[in-house]
Write a structure and sequence with these properties.
single chain, 178 residues, mainly alpha, 3 strands
Length: 178
């Protein structure tokens, strides 16, 4: 926990609040619950001030909540791709969730999805991020996403976004320059 968070004070009406394992100052038996934040902390820039970071954070929170509810597609999205940028096969993903590939397919169908659609969604989001935030050549991006050649990647990207990777990059860089 950061030193800044340790300076915060929680005032709560809960009777046993002082028994909680919170590394902040806790005052109990107040009329209402309050979180007091020192001015030097509250004046810091908020990470949610950046619309892109905010959207990413919201999606992460929604996926976590859905995972708690048993939504298999959210749990699957959270593991795509793994830390080594490897795209798991259907069989590997099913094994990860301790189920057969057929059961995973059935569970996804009940959510109105297919395994390939989830892979395409994840690859499309990552491709858009690479194109808008890096200057990597399109061939390198295609390779990072598991495509064997640029043409196959370009066709898939156009199917996902209705424009070519180079047009997407050009549009993004012209919009961010404004």
């Amino acid at each position: 926990m950061s030193a800044a968070a340790a300076e915060m004070i929680i005032e709560t009406s809960w009777e046993n609040a002082t028994d909680m394992q919170i590394p902040m100052q806790v005052r109990s038996q107040c009329q209402r619950t309050t979180l007091r934040v020192p001015a030097h902390i509250s004046e810091r820039a908020s990470h949610t001030g950046d619309p892109k970071l905010y959207a990413i954070a919201c999606r992460g929170c929604e996926e976590e909540l859905a995972a708690l509810d048993g939504n298999i597609s959210a749990r699957l999205r959270a593991m795509l791709p793994d830390v080594n940028q490897q795209w798991p096969t259907l069989k590997q993903s099913a094994a990860h969730f301790a189920m057969s590939p057929r059961t995973l397919i059935r569970r996804l169908v009940t959510e109105g999805l297919t395994y390939q659609a989830l892979l395409d969604e994840a690859k499309g989001e990552l491709a858009c991020w690479y194109l808008s935030n890096t200057s990597l050549p399109i061939g390198v991006i295609a390779s990072k996403l598991g495509f064997l050649d640029d043409a196959n990647f370009s066709r898939s990207f156009k199917r996902w976004t209705q424009r070519s990777p180079s047009a997407y990059r050009k549009e993004y860089t012209s919009n961010s320059a404004d």
